[in-house]
Task: inverse folding
């Protein structure tokens, strides 16, 4: 299984990145391959000018195409998700999220921003033909405390539990996805099948 983890925060130190890192570690313990992109990994010129021929954009598009699922995490700014994330999502082809499981994650200053996932992010994911978008997670800033120095960030117990439950649901959804059959294998199966009327 391959999951693309996509962070929408332009900041080097961000709460959304903390949740993505926890998610990556959890999934990798179950043998899921996770490739992480942050919007700050992309040159601003590539995003602003929609440079589809950029090597990093090409790499991103290829991995999204191959992925079984995506985790899309964003801070909430002005009652919506990060503009840099929207610019990156705009580079995806129209049906890029078809047949993929999507787990949205958002962080914001207060619980008042919780609906940004449903009213701002999910419609964009839907426009990319996401067929299975999970409920997702919202965390307010008070639920994620940065550690001192190099110590890991701490999550509030309620958030830790919600994150694990959402990741379990995400993993189950990934596992039940029908796996594509290579054309040669499918042809061989059809030829060797016993037909009866």
Result:
């Amino acid at each position: 299984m391959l999951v693309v983890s996509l962070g929408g925060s332009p900041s080097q130190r961000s709460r959304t990145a903390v949740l993505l890192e926890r998610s990556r570690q959890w999934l990798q313990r179950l043998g899921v391959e996770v490739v992480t992109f942050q919007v700050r990994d992309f040159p601003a010129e590539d995003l602003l000018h929609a440079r589809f021929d950029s090597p990093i954009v090409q790499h991103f598009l290829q991995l999204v195409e191959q992925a079984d699922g995506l985790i899309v995490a964003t801070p909430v700014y002005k009652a919506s998700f990060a503009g840099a994330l929207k610019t990156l999502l705009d580079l995806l082809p129209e049906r890029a999220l078809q047949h993929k499981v999507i787990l949205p994650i958002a962080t914001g200053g207060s619980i008042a921003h919780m609906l940004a996932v449903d009213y701002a992010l999910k419609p964009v994911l839907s426009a990319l033909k996401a067929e299975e978008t999970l409920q997702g997670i919202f965390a307010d800033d008070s639920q994620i405390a940065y550690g001192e120095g190099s110590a890991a960030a701490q999550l509030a117990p309620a958030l830790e539990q919600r994150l694990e439950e959402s990741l379990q649901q995400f993993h189950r959804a990934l596992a039940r996805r029908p796996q594509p059959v290579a054309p040669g294998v499918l042809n061989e199966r059809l030829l060797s099948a016993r037909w009866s009327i």
Observations:
- The chain is about 40% helix and 20% strand.
- The first helix runs from residue 15 to 29.
- The mean pLDDT is 86.
